[in-house]
Structure formats: C-alpha cells, structure tokens
Write a structure and sequence with these properties.
The complex is a heterodimer of chains A (69) and B (718). Helices cover 0% and strands 33% of the residues of chain A. With 69 residues, chain A is mainly beta. Chain A starts with 7 loop residues before the first strand and ends with a strand. The longest helix of chain B is centred in the C-terminal third of the chain and has 20 residues. At the A-B interface, strand 2 and strand 4 of A face helix 6, helix 10 and helix 17 of B. Bound molecules: flavin-adenine dinucleotide. Flavin-adenine dinucleotide binds next to helix 12, helix 13, helix 16, helix 17 and helix 19 of chain B.
Chain lengths: 69, 718
C-alpha cells in the first residue's frame, strides 16, 4: 500500500518491525491521518508519520496501518 | 471552575498554585517542587513507570527536610497524602493509564496540539495572534519549539492536517500565522528569550547544529546547563541551512533564531567533526556529563546504474544543495536531469533553474499520483518551467569525452506485485530512450552517515542504519548518550527533529538529576486557557482561508528571493479568528445530543465533531431553531458552550461564536427576567393543555401565581 499525505488510516495491528515499541500497543484500533508519508522514494519499508486522533503523531512501520477509505 | 475530584489532578493543581504564587523563594525548594510536578504530570498522563511514586515520595521527604517554610510543608504534605491516602488511585494511573474521573484529560490538548510532534499549544498562540499579541504568541510557541520563524516557513504542518476546521471547510492556516507573528515580533524586537535558570555548573555536549541539536541546546541552556555544540560545517542550521533552499527559507531567518541561542550562552564549535576532531572520550575528558547526537541523515543513495561514477557531472541532490548554500553558484550543467519524485528532487530542480540552467527535467518512475512530493511544491515547480517525465526508469548515464551527454531510460508501466496491493513500475521492453543532459542529479533518498560514530562502542543501530533509542526519552543503549532527529528517524521533518531535541533535553535533565525516565512519549502541555475571540456565527462560518501571495514568475526563475510573500496583517488577524478553539470545546457532542434527543429541538449542527464521519456543519441554523433553553450549556463539561444574559439579551455562544441571541422577556408585573419569547412559548406548548390559548402577556412564576389567584377571586365575586 502506498500511503498518501492526508489519507485516513487505522493502526490495526501490532507490527513485527523492530521500530515497533511496546507503548504503541495502546494505539491499536486508533484512527488517524497520514501527515508525512515516505516523501522520497515510495519505499514500502519506510516509516510513515501518522497523527492519531487524541494520541499524538508517531512514525509507524507500514505493515500495521491500513487505509480507512 | 470547580475543584477536581481526581486526587492526582487535585495534587497537581494545588502544587501548581503554590509554584505560581512565587511563595517558594529558595531555589532548591523550587527545583524540587518542579521535579515533583514533572513526575506527577507523568502520572496524570499515564507516562509513569514503576519507580515514579517512590521518586515522588523521596523528593517530598527531601523538600520537608530542606525547607520548613509553610508552603514547602504543604507541598510535602500533599506528596505524603498522594503516596499514602491516595496510593491506590495513583497506582491505577500508573498501571492502567486511566483516570476514573476523567479529570486528567480535562485540559486535553486540541487535536492540532496533539498532532504537533513538538506539542505546541496551537489554539493559544493562534488566538493571541488574532488579538494582535504577536510577541506573547511567540513566547508560547517557544515553550515547545525554539524556531517559530523557521517553522512558520517550512513546517510540514501536521497540525493543519488534524485541524478540526478542516472538517468544516479548510484548516486554519496555522503555519503562516506563526511566520507572521515571528517576523513581526523579531522586527519589533519583542522576540525575546525567557529567563534562564541559575547556572548548574554541569556541561552537556551536543553533536550537530541542526534543528534537533539546537532545540536540545536551547532547552538545556534554559535549565541552566553549560551547552556546547560541535558542528562539522562552518555554520549552524543543518539541513534547514544547507538542504532547504533560500527561496523557501531565507538565511536571515535561521541566523536570527540561532542568534537567540547564542544570546542564551550556547557555545558553537564550527568546522569540528565528531569522530575526527572530537570523540566521546575526549569530550568526557573535557568534563561533559551527557551527550546528544543529532547528526542528521546527510548521505545519499546512489542510482547504482552504469556510468554513474564515470563523469564529474553526476552528483546527488544533497551535495548540490549544500554547495549552493555554502556559496557555490556555478551551474551543475546547462541541461539537467534530476532523478526522483520527492521534495528533495523538487528543491534540487528549482535550485538548478535559479542557478541559470537552461532546462531542468525531473525523471520519476511512477505517475503523478504516486509522486511523494507535496502537491504545492510540484505545482510551483511546473509553473516555473520544470518538466516532469513520469514512468521513466533510468538505466545508464551516457557520455562522451568525459562529459555526460544524456540519461538512458526505459518507459515503465505500473503493475501490482503479487502478494501486495502496491503499484510497482515495471520496465516496458524495447522502450529505451535517452533524455539529453549534461548533468544528472540523483535525489532518491538519504541515509545516516555512520562512519563518524564508529568509535562509539555499544551504540545500537537499527536495520535502517539509524541510531536505536528508547523513543519515550531518546536515550541510546549507552548511559548518558541520547540521540534524536533524522539520525534516529531517518530523513524526516524539521518539527520532528525539534520535538525529538526537546524530548532529549528533558531526558538529559532527568538523567543528570537522577530521576526516572518516562515510559511513554510526553503528552503535550496546555500553556494557557486564553479567552476566545467573539464573533457572530455568520462571521465565523463565512471567513475563508486566504491565498498566499507569490513572487512573480520571472523572479522565481531567476532569483533565490523568497517565493511565498506572506499574508497581510489584516488577513492574519482575520484568519486566526477561524480557529474553533478545540482546546476548550472537546467535541464530546453532549450539547448536540441533548438539544436533539432530550429537548427535541435539533438546533446544533456540528458535523465537524465526528472525526471518522464528519457530517455537515451549519453554525447559522442555530439562530433559526434554538429556543435558548440553556440545556446544552448546562451540560457542557468544559464550559465551551455558554448561555448568558447581557444588555437585555440572552446569548448562546460556543467558544465565542455567537450562535443565537434574543431579547429577554421580563415579567409584566415585577420586571424579573423570564426568558426569551421562543423559550416561553416552547414551555407553554409543552405545559398547557392543547385547547388553552397562550397568554401574550408574560409573567414570572410568582407574578403568574398571584395573577391567577386574583383571577379566581374576581371570578368568585361574579
Ligand atoms: C532538500 C531538503 C529539503 C527539506 N525540506 C523540508 C521542509 O520543507 N520541511 C521540513 O519539515 N523538513 C524538510 N527537510 C527535512 C529537514 O531538513 C530535516 O528533517 C531536519 O533538518 C533534520 O534535523 P536534524 O537536526 O536531525 O539534522 P540536520 O538538520 O541534518 O543537522 C545535522 C547536523 O549535524 C552535522 N553533523 C553531521 N555529522 C557530524 C559530525 N560527525 N560531527 C559534527 N557535526 C555533524 C551536520 O553538518 C548538520 O549540521 C528537508 C530536507 C532536505 C534535504
């Protein structure tokens, strides 16, 4: 999935990526907006910046995100 | 406002009041109390770890022993109660991150503030700008971000993407408001540093003078540490100075804001490379007790195609932009091809154009839809005459006599790769063609240059070749060594670097004070509850986000002059008034529900309140339907929606937006206020039997009773 700026997404599961942190478990099920996708090379491995409603802005691996629309 | 029910909130509030009263005159008592507050706030926000409560207890005991002034005794007593009487509640905050009363989110930051990686209190500063208090707005911003002017020009503005007004029409133009206020305050010399804490006599070393390093430097200097920054380049700024081109961010803006750090006593050592001129051990020997690594991501990915290393005029965007920023204004070639589709590719292409290149083409593998660069940047580049060739895969750099002659490419088509839903560019067989060029610039991504840290043993590197840290506090695996910015996230944004630098400064302070680190990233802090700006619903709904005036196209092709010219003062003040003040109205929807379901009126149409499925918003409809009963206001948990009687009128407002106002009806006999006509008629319709006619003379309950009694007496006499 290529994420686009402004796209609504859901953090739907834990990621297996090493950048996943234990505290992020609290965010599973949260909805948010992609605020900074990978802005250089459309890399499926890049971390994507997402602002989660009420939970702040974080960088997540792409395998735990899915688009809402 | 009523006293909070939650003991955590209540303890914080009481200690905060003691701090604000300036009663704690002894600096040590003040410091201990502030540390207690910091830890209590971690508890309130669910960021505390298992040792927080014991640390709070120890600090309380230290305070009691150190100072026997009544205020200190009071703080110590509050702490004692917290860890004894209210232990269970405190522990539940730590363990479950849950405040049963909901009080600990009473001051919940607005979505824009939550979205900001540096946690700036957006509604507060936007409102201050709307009121014309620019310098005050800047000092609010600088509590969380020391570079409001820089960010006002180049921030990627996650805040605007979460702006609730955007669900109504367009987000508030937060970024440009910030730029205006910073410029105005700077020009009026009212842009000032806050007072510094007394010198702690302890030194922190910072590696890299980019936004991450300088933000950490700023907050540590304010806390009283001696801060020295070691920077490889001859100037401060990092990528904002040597990456972002001057037509987007003038050098003076960076220099002025860096100057504020120097004024605080931050010392810069330029042309000093970590790993070559200084090392971790040499800095330890020089008396530094903590270290912050913020070296950015200055390496570039290579194209890995034949011919790439054979010609001098094949380079990467970062090197080109750096050379230009450092003063080299030679053109890279007459006809340039830039490979890539991100913001860096666009910056490199627009820079080449301004240097005087005759033609500049961007070659991108996918289509416009997948281009990762910002749409505004792409549009501005195309307006300036930059060509973009899509579905183009470079396969070789071609040349003759040591000079580049072109970039051999293949056409691509987008296909879905098995097992994924991602579109990949697949070369089309036999579609080879050559883009004529005498210079090729690769802009296909950056990476951290790891060599300078090779001597630092025990540093954890991620598989993305970034420095591994605990994101809650930016601490690396090495005690006393912290890192943030692009070196941790990979190429990211200025505001993330600033947020990381600030977080690291707080963690370094805790580390040096022997306090435990938080277990979760910090929750932004509300800086004030600024009064709202009053206006009618029609005005609020009718204001439109202004267009940004741009430099004329000829100059944009020829000069590095700033392209975005900034809003007029009038536009700025009006635009700030579009803010919905989500710091006060938390969009719980209770008012809408009560009006619709209990009162059966349905006068509140706030579709923007729903994040997932925003519905239509109509601020003006309230005036037509509302009876000014006040049920919405009575149930608002945060005093956002209010009903008040002013100058003979009853007024309903939401965060200053007047939704309805009607003349008040007074009792015909005694003059007491009874309500509005619509309200009385509504109540009459509900209370009186259907066959009864509604009296057009309004009386208060008492006079009505007397009147009825008199009528009965009169009737009896007949
Ligand atoms: C062309 C371009 C355009 C960009 N545009 C935007 C934009 O519009 N908006 C946005 O938000 N972000 C933008 N960015 C990204 C942004 O600039 C970075 O995310 C941000 O600057 C990172 O900050 P940092 O402090 O982590 O690193 P940097 O800003 O890279 O600073 C690191 C500093 O460390 C120094 N350094 C490196 N190694 C050593 C060493 N061994 N010893 C001493 N010093 C060292 C470097 O010289 C540099 O000064 C852009 C980036 C580029 C390249």
């Amino acid at each position: 999935m290529t994420f686009r700026k402004g796209q609504r997404v859901e953090l739907f599961r834990e990621s297996r990526d090493e950048s996943w942190e234990a505290y992020m478990r609290e965010y599973i099920g949260c909805h948010g907006v992609v605020t900074d996708p990978d802005t250089s090379i459309n890399d499926p491995d890049a971390l994507v910046e997402v602002s989660l409603e009420g939970k702040g802005t974080h960088r997540f691996p792409q395998d735990c995100l899915r688009p809402l629309e | 406002m009523s006293e909070p029910l939650c003991p955590v909130r209540s303890t914080i509030d009481q200690i905060e009041r003691i701090c604000q009263s300036n009663a704690l005159v002894n600096p040590k008592s003040r410091r201990i109390t502030e540390e207690i507050l910091e830890l209590l706030n971690d508890v309130a926000w669910g960021r505390a770890g298992s040792d927080h409560l014991s640390s709070i207890k120890a600090l309380g005991e230290e305070l009691a022993q150190h100072d026997n002034k009544p205020e200190c005794t009071r703080v110590a007593q509050l702490v004692e109660d917290a860890v004894t009487v209210h232990l269970e509640t405190f522990e539940s905050h730590v363990r479950t991150h849950n405040c049963a009363t909901g009080e600990c989110v009473k001051l919940a930051p607005a979505p824009c503030q939550m979205a900001c990686p540096a946690g700036i209190d957006v509604p507060t500063y936007v409102t201050l700008i709307g009121m014309g208090h620019d310098a005050e707005a800047i000092s609010v911003i600088r509590k969380d971000n020391p570079f409001p002017w820089v960010c006002g020009l180049v921030c990627t503005r996650p805040c605007e993407m979460m702006c609730v007004r955007g669900r109504m029409d367009e987000p508030v133009s937060i970024k440009f408001l910030k730029a205006f206020a910073a410029e105005r305050a700077m020009s009026e010399r009212s842009y000032q540093n806050p007072p510094k804490a007394p010198d702690k006599g302890r030194k922190v070393a910072i590696v890299g003078a980019g936004p991450a390093g300088m933000s950490a430097a700023y907050y540590l200097a304010l806390k009283g540490y001696g801060v020295e920054v070691f920077e490889d380049l001859p100037m401060a700024g990092g990528m904002i100075m040597v990456g972002i081109p001057r037509y987007r961010l003038p050098r003076e803006v960076i220099d002025r804001e860096v100057g504020m750090l120097e004024e605080l006593g931050v010392v810069f050592h330029f042309n000093t490379r970590f790993g070559r001129d200084v090392t971790l051990n040499s800095l330890k020997d020089a008396g530094f007790e903590a270290f912050f690594i913020a070296i950015g991501a200055h390496g570039s990915f290579r194209l890995n195609i034949p011919g790439e290393s054979d010609y001098p005029r094949v380079s990467d965007a970062i090197s080109l932009l750096k050379k230009v920023a450092l003063g080299d204004r030679n053109i890279p070639g007459r006809r340039v091809v830039v490979v890539g589709g991100g913001n860096v590719a666009i910056d490199a292409a627009r820079t080449c154009l301004r240097l005087g290149c005759e033609s500049v083409t961007i070659a991108y593998r996918r289509t416009r839809n997948e281009m990762p660069a910002d749409i505004e940047e792409i549009e501005q580049a195309e307006e300036e005459g930059i060509e973009i060739t899509f579905l183009t895969i470079p396969v070789a750099v071609e040349g003759k006599d040591g000079q580049v002659t072109g970039l051999r490419c293949l056409r691509a088509k987008l296909v879905v790769k098995e097992g994924t839903d991602r579109l990949y560019p697949k070369p089309v067989e036999g579609s080879e063609f050559v883009l004529p060029a005498d210079a090729v610039i690769a802009a296909i991504g950056q990476q951290v240059q790891t060599e300078c840290l090779q001597t630092v043993e025990g540093l954890h590197w991620s598989r993305r070749q970034t420095i591994g840290v605990d994101l809650a506090c930016m601490q690396t695996d090495l005690p006393g060594v912290f890192a943030a910015g692009d070196a941790v996230t990979g190429p990211a944004t200025v505001i993330e670097a600033i947020g990381g630098g600030k977080r690291a400064a707080e963690a370094i302070d805790r580390h040096l004070s022997g306090l435990p680190q938080p277990k979760m990233p910090p929750v932004p802090v509300r800086r004030a509850r600024t009064p709202w700006i009053e206006m009618t619903a029609a005005e609020k709904a009718g204001r439109r986000r202004p267009e940004m005036p741009l430099l004329n196209i000829d100059r944009r092709r020829l000069m590095f002059q700033q392209v975005e010219l900034g809003y007029s003062e009038d536009d700025v003040r009006r635009e700030a008034g579009r803010c919905l003040r989500c710091d006060i109205c938390r969009r719980c929807g209770l008012c809408v529900e009560i009006c619709r379901d209990r009162m059966k009126i349905g006068a509140l149409h706030f579709g923007y309140m729903n994040f997932d499925q925003p519905g239509p918003t109509d601020l003006k409809i309230t005036e037509k339907k509302c009876i000014l009963c006040g049920a919405c206001a009575a149930n608002c948990p945060n005093e956002a929606i209010r009903i008040e009687d002013r100058n003979g009128e009853r007024i309903l407002s939401l965060c200053g937006t007047i939704l309805n106002r009607r003349p008040l009806i007074t009792c015909a006999d005694c003059g007491a206020v009874i309500g509005t006509e619509a309200y009385i008629q509504h109540m009459n319709r509900k209370i009186l039997a259907a066959e009864q006619t509604i009296d057009t003379v309004y009386r208060c309950a008492e006079c009505h009773r007397k009147h009825q009694a008199q009528l009965s007496v009169d009737l009896a006499r007949l």
